[in-house]
Amino acid sequence: MTNSSASSSPNASNQTVDVSPVLTDQKKSGSTKTRAAGGRDASKTTSVERSKKSSGSIKSNPENSRRKGGGGNFGSSHTFSFSSFRKGIALGMIETRGMVPAIEAADAMTKAAEVTLVAREYVGGGYVTVMVRGETGAVNASVRAGADACERVGDGLVAAHIIARPDSGVEPALTPSGAKRRY
Amino acid sequence: MEKWQVKKRPLCLERRFEFKSYSETREFLEQLGDLSEEKKIFPDISFGRTYVNLTIRPEGEANDSQITDVEKNFASEINGLLN
Fold first, then answer.
1. Domain boundaries, chain A
2. Which residue in the set A90, A136, A160 is minimally distant from B47, CB to CB?
3. Of A12, A112, A127, B57, which is least surrounded by CB within 10 A?
4. CB-CB contact of A168 with A88 (8 Å)
């Protein structure tokens, strides 16, 4: 009963807002064939909806508590399971020194070519890695553009790497860990 | 194909290119990208500000795929980008 009353009168203070879509591809859903084919379906829409529906029981749900406290918002994107429909598609990675160049690189990469930003990882020590996937040529172009962009921001560029055909065994390692910060 | 190393397990061709500045690195990457698109061969590329590591793998998916003249010629053409 209390749950139903809570959900009928949503309160901003007890809602979990999942920001992970910003770093996945929801903002551009449908702009590429793979996105459309991959189906921005129920599995994607549920992260926000689930938060709203369960707003009254967030505190009692260990899963939600973990997300809330541990910065696991991004980690929740593993439910999107990009890897399940992106096997064999090229992988591009850029590691940067600091968050600003990482964002700059991610922005440039997604603007430069039709790629999907699949992960942002706090590696530790101030290093951040962003990963994109897409067709090989697109990933090539996007990583070059991303490297250019973060190179302009301080000494942002640490390393960039493109794997044209990642082995399927690598896929589990490409799932965002959900770590918010590592020291 | 000089300066390329043939590695086994997994079988591939590798070479490291070093440059004096990021702009030189970038120029090389641009040319490499064009060449890859033209030949439809996409090597693994690892780069930083002043270096590029390239790995050319056999085209086939099978484990016993061999490096053919296609890959060797591609490697030679990459060498030509430095001139």
1. 83-174
2. A160
3. A12
4. yes
pLDDT digits (tens, 9 = 90+) for A81-103: 444 444 448 999 999 999 999 99
- The domain that holds B28 is classified in CATH as 3.30.1360.20
What separation in angstroms does the CA of A177 have from each of A8, A24, A36, A118, A124? 33, 14, 25, 12, 13
Q: A160 by DSSP, 3-state: which?
A: strand
Q: How far is A4 from chain B (nearest CA, A)?
A: 53
- DSSP class per residue in A71-82: TTTTGGGGGG-H
Nearest CA in chain B to A155: B49
Residue A165, amino acid = R
* Cβ separation A164–B49 shorter than 8 A: no
Query: How is B45-74 classified by DSSP, letter by letter?
Result: EEE-SSEEEEEE--SSSSTT----HHHHHH
Nearest to A164 among B29, B43, B48 (CB): B43
- How far is Cα B19 from Cα A61, in angstroms, rounded to an integer? 54
What is the per-residue burial (b if ≥16 Cβ within 10 Å, else e) of B68-83?
Answer: eeebeebbeebeeeee
Contact B48 A160 (CB under 8 A): yes
**Assigned CATH class of A83-174:** alpha beta
Distance in angstroms (rounded) separating the CA atoms of residues B61 and B17: 27
Beta bridge partners of B81: none
Using an 8 Å Cβ cutoff, are B33 and A144 in contact?
yes
Cβ-based contacts under 8 A for chains A and B: 45
Report the number of distinct structural domains present in chain B.
1
